[in-house]
Structure formats: C-alpha cells, structure tokens
Amino acid sequence: MPLTQPTFAQTDTATPLTIVPEDTCADWLASLDAPAQKWAEASGFAGKIGQALVVPDMDGGVQMAAVGYGTEADRKRARFHVAAALPRLPAGIYAFHSDLDAETLETEALGWLLSSYRFDRYAEQSPSRVQLVAPEGIDAPRIEIIAAGEALTRDLINTPASDMGPPDLEAAARELAEEFSASIDVTTGDDLLTVNFPMIHAVGRAADRAPRLIDMRWGDAGPKLTLVGKGVCFDTGGLNLKPGASMGLMKKDMGGSAAVLGLARMIMALGLPLQLRVLIPAVENSVSSNAFRPQDILTSRKGLTVEINNTDAEGRLVLADALALADEDTPDLIVSMATLTGAARVAVGPDLAPYYVDDLQLVTALEQAAASVADPVWRMPFHTPYEPMIEPGIADLDNAPKGGFAGSITAALFLRRFVTKTPRYMHFDIYGWQPSDAPARPKGGVGQGTRALLAALPTALKL
Question: What residue range is the signal peptide (predicted)?
C-alpha cells in the first residue's frame, strides 16, 4: 500500500513563524512596528495555544506570522502546541522563529509533519495547506523517518478489515521487508499445527482468510530485539459474540501489529545497530461451525494448557504462541504490543499507553524518553499476587478470569507465563485509536508508545 511520506519543505523562501509564549506576548507585541501592533491587537492575539496571527504586507501577502505557545501550565495539558494553530494559518511555507531548545523544536516539528497525515485510500482528502522548513539544529531526516513510521501505523489501522485481513497484513509486512532487505517467513493455515502454533490456529481457523504467523528479521549484529504485535484483523468476539456497539471499532484490533511494523520501519530506516525480529500472529476471530468454544482447553506452543472461558479474550492466545517462539531465541529484550483489554482504557483512558515491565532500568529509560518525545506512557504492575486469578484448576491457565477485577493486569500476567528464558520482557496494552481530532492526531488510528520506545532503545540496549 502506498505510504504517506511527510517531509519538510525544501526552499530558501519561507514566511517567518514566531512561536510566542503567553507570558512574554506583551513584550513581543511591543517589539513590533505600530501597524503590526494594531493589527495584532485587533486580532485579539494573546499567545494562547491554538491562536494564530497573520500580519499582511502592503500587497496583501503575508508579512509575518505567529502562533501562541500558551503558559507552562497550558503546555502540560496538551501536546504538539504549535500544531494546534495550523488550521488557522493560511496556505504557505513557514520557518520557525523561536528560542526554544532543540529537543522542543524537534517535537514541534514532528507535530507539524504528523498534522499533514491524510488517509485518502477511499476518498480524496485535501492535502495540508501549510508546510514547514526544517528548523536549524534538529535532525530533520530522523524526524521525517519517525513521521513516516507513524504514518504506516495509522494507514494499517485505518484500513477496514475488508482490505486488511491476515493476507493483507502479510503483504504489508512483505513490502516493508523488501524495502529494507529484511528476511521474512510466513506460516499459514494448517501448517501452523505442523510447526506447533496451536493457539494461533485455533483462534483463526473459523475465518475464510487463513490465520498465519509472520516472522521478519533484519540486522546481523548487535543486541537482539524482538517485537511481537497482536494482529487480530477483525474481532467479532467469536462465539461469545460482541454487541454491535463493541464491534464497531474492531478493525483496529490489529493495532499492536501496526505499531510494531511502524516501529520496525523507524528502526530499519535509521539503521540502528541491532538485530531486529518482528513476530505477528495474524488472524480473524470469526464465527463458524469450527470456531473454538467456551470451555475448550487448548494446549499452547509452550505446553501450557489454557481453559477458554471467553472466546472474546483471543488476543492473549495468539500472542502466547508468538511469545513462546520469541522466548526460544532468548533475545536481549522482548516487547509485545496489543490492543488487548478494555480494562486498560477504563484505567488510563485512550491517550496513555500503559505498559508492564519489571526491569527498573527499562522503566527509567522509557519514562525519560516518553517525556522528551511527547509520547506518554504509564507503568502498570506485574502484580504477582494476582497469579491465582489466571489459574482455573482444570488447566494451567484461564484466558478470561471471572470477577472483572484487574483485567489488564491479569492479561499481562497471562502473557508473562510464556516468557521464561528471556530476562527482559515489556508488554504494552495500547488503544491504537484517536477518538477525536487533536493537534497532530486526527481522529482514527494512531501509534502509541512507539516513539518512546525508539528513543529509549539506545539506553535500554546500550547501542
């Protein structure tokens, strides 16, 4: 599928765009010439986030422009503050004029590029009217790579299941592998049973489009990083059928796979010195005469048995087989990403990416990175005393513990049972969806945690 490639404008002619904090706005206005001051006052410009000021020249063009940057308190309540004003700027090419530090400029420049994203596969979309010249002092190629990786994630999530089933997800992975000379191997249909991926097969066997395990590798030196992404291309809930309202967004249930493919693209395009492996169990959870059933007991790749108490808790089943495979290779770090539980949304809402990890060095690296790149995450506990909740007695594990308590935690504990050899494992229970338009994040599919992970990898893996 064609990839949106957000890029900076390449020109020496651009309109200066001053970034004006609210607490210094009065001084800035006083520095303007009299006509510009009067125009700004008449426009009501006060440096608030989302405000834009355009001062015309004598020919009716744009002499200069400014956007509000709010107060420090305002900036803590939002992200991508410059992008909030872009809808109010006239078409044109702009160049930042600001004394912001390089790290902040990079974030605001990234927000500008992310604002240019359009999902136009099915209907023509108006292109972004405004372009930005890369600010001096930032790593512009890196920012463009990150924006392209995020665009890939958004495109994959936004595509409906009619065009993003398991074969289409495989095609997207193959296209990415070809672009960066990565190797890829795919196990499909009944072959999953032959090579011992029984739970991936069980979840996906009822669908017309066969289940599969996608295995991509890139790099031959450096620490080993394995990314595992949930690829449930549509989730009806299976025989425990979801109500219509809950099924409406289930095209995004492959958001974990979209996130790891977007992150993988960033890693490969940047040429990070590591060995990357991407594992995606791609399935549809459908209803048919051969669908797996409540009270079935499945035997996983790892040999652990799982009692099925709700067929709508299928994501952890396909991830379990993929994690068992990842663990056999004992990489330096395994990261799983999945749109796994509604409990995570209840706990932290749609904007935060909750994650689980026991390694405190990883926690420090990720939290610092997340703050620096405006990609918020929130640590949740692998609370071992809850382990009995996922042990039904009749089998080793329960895929849907009764009671409704700690749903995201028990799902994470379930997954951790399949990573026993690899010392460092991190799990993200993401939402993968922006419920309403926000600066740099139009309504629709969105990456979560990936930019934070990318920024944390040099510290986490000692690159």
Answer: none
Domain boundaries, the chain: 15-138, 144-460
Q: What is the dihedral of CA 41, 44, 49, 54, to 10 degrees?
A: -60
Domain 15-138 grouped into CATH 3.40.220.10: yes
The answer to whether 421 touches 327, Cβ cutoff 8 Å, is yes
Do the bridges between strand 353-356 and strand 231-235 make them parallel or antiparallel, or are there none, so unpaired?
Answer: unpaired
Please tell me whether residue 147 adopts helix, strand or coil conformation: helix
Asked if 232 and 314 count as a contact pair (C-beta separation under 8 A), the reply is yes
Phi, psi (degrees; rounded to nearest 5) at 30: -65, -20
Please identify which of the residues 316, 416, 417, 451 carries the catalytic annotation. Answer: 316
Average pLDDT across the chain, whole number: 96
CA–centroid distance for 210 within its chain:
26
In the residue annotation, 316 being an active-site residue is answered as: yes
Q: Which residues pair with 419 in a beta bridge?
A: none
Whether 90 and 62 have beta carbons less than 8 Å apart is answered as yes
> 208-233 pLDDT, tens per residue?
999 999 999 999 999 999 999 999 99
- What's the CA gap between 351 and 145, in Å, rounded? 23
Pairing of strands 444-445, 397-398: unpaired
- Cβ contacts of 139 within 8 Å, gap of 6 or more: 106
Pick the CATH number of 144-460 from 3.40.50.720, 3.30.70.1130, 3.40.630.10, 2.40.37.10: 3.40.630.10
Contacts of 337 (CB under 8 A, 6+ apart): 227, 228, 229, 230, 255, 256, 259, 260, 427, 428, 430, 449, 450
Question: Which one of the listed residues 88, 242, 345, 424 is annotated catalytic?
Answer: 242
Band (403; pLDDT cuts 50, 70, 90): confident
Q: Which residues pair with 217 in a beta bridge?
A: 183, 277
pLDDT in the model for residue 3: 65
Q: Which residues contact 152 (CB under 8 A, 6 or more apart)?
A: 3, 176, 258, 261, 262, 265
